[in-house]
Amino acid sequence: MIANFWNSRAKGLITEMDLQIERADRQGVEIRMPFNPDFCLDEEGTMVHGGVLTALLDSAFGLANFLAVDDVQTMATLDLRVDYLRPASSRADVIVSANCYRQTRHIAFGSGKIWFDTGDCEEVARGSATFALTRGKGGLLEKMNTRGPGG
Amino acid sequence: MKLSDIQARCDRVPFFRHLGFSVTEANDTHFIARMPFEQRHIGNPVLDTYHGGIIASFMEAIASLTVVDDVSSPPPKPINLTVDFLRPGLPGTLNTRATVLRKGRRMASVETIAWLEDEGKPVAKGLFHFLLV
């Protein structure tokens, strides 16, 4: 359900990245991003730009928090940290997994990792982020439902 | 490095074209660039604000340019980054200033700041480490 909803309401970068949700529940999310030559460092498309992986992690954290945090009304990234563990030189799909490992009333802490869907599944990047939350009735879901894209 | 050479280099990078920025100032210690707002940069579909990853990518792109020796040098290898988001990334042209904090033989550290209209009211601040070998 959430996957369909997320995709149907997506716009901007989320649409550009053509994200496919593989798994999404309160315990965490796993999202697939197909290879896209526009996200590469070179015309030959041998190397994905690190910034794309950062953006992918940020998106995954957003969805993970959205599912894990009760009554979330607004969510703002406070900070984002990413370690690039290996060169992102593959044309395989990129997989990101992320979870919200701790939430307080005002803050959510997330952790995630990225690998290429190549079989050996060696981690390419690892990241963590913190988010400022506001909670209350009439959360993000309702807002997106009633106001639609661009609200 | 001449601005036109730097821009030509950027125009050869698919992802930099996707971001759509232009470098407006470049010298040994800092670079400044501007990026017009595009639909494809949106992160929050309710507020139409910039995607945090786009802001971080823009800052990383400019940071990486400040540490190359000349326009034909290979890009530095990013090691890691930290980005603090200080204000909402409202729709509008985003500016970035990247300042080299230290550039050694093997490593470089670059600090960045991004703002919409007032540099005194930054949207985000970043610290990027690069491997130069």
Could you provide a short overview of the structure?
Chain A has 151 residues and is α+β, with helices and mostly antiparallel strands. Chain A contains four helices and six strands. The mean pLDDT of chain B is 96.
Structure description:
The complex is a heterodimer of chains A (151) and B (133). Chain A has a single domain, classed as Hotdog Thioesterase (Thiol Ester Dehydrase, Chain A). Helices cover 26% and strands 38% of the residues of chain A. Chain A has helices at residues 2-9, 13-17, 50-68, 140-147; strands at residues 20-25, 28-33, 72-84, 94-103, 107-116, 123-135. Chain A starts with a helix and ends with a helix. In chain A, 38% of the residues are buried. The model of chain A is unreliable at 147-151 (pLDDT under 50). Chain B is of the alpha+beta class. Chain B has a single domain, classed as Roll (Thiol Ester Dehydrase, Chain A), CATH 3.10.129. In chain B, the strands form 2 sheets. In chain B, strands 1-2-6-7-8-5 form a 6-stranded antiparallel β-sheet. In chain B, strand 6 and strand 7 (107-115) form a beta hairpin. The longest helix of chain B has 15 residues, at 52-66. Classes of the chains: A alpha+beta (151), B alpha+beta (133). Chain A binds chain B through residues 9-16, 37-43, 45, 49-52, 54-59, 62, 76-84, 87, 140, 143-144, 147, 149-151, and chain B through 12-15, 17-18, 39-43, 45-48, 51-54, 56-58, 60-61, 75, 77-85, 88.
CATH topology of chain A: Thiol Ester Dehydrase, Chain A
DSSP strand count of chain B = 8
How many strands, what sense, and barrel or not for the largest sheet of chain B?
A: 6 strands, antiparallel
Work out the oligomeric state of the chains in this entry: heterodimer
Largest sheet, spatial ordering of strands of chain A: 1-2-4-5-6-3
Q: How much helical structure, as a percent, in the residues of chain B?
A: 10-25%
- Number of spatially distinct domains of chain B: 1
- Range of strand content of chain A: 35-45%
Strand order of the largest sheet of chain B: 1-2-6-7-8-5
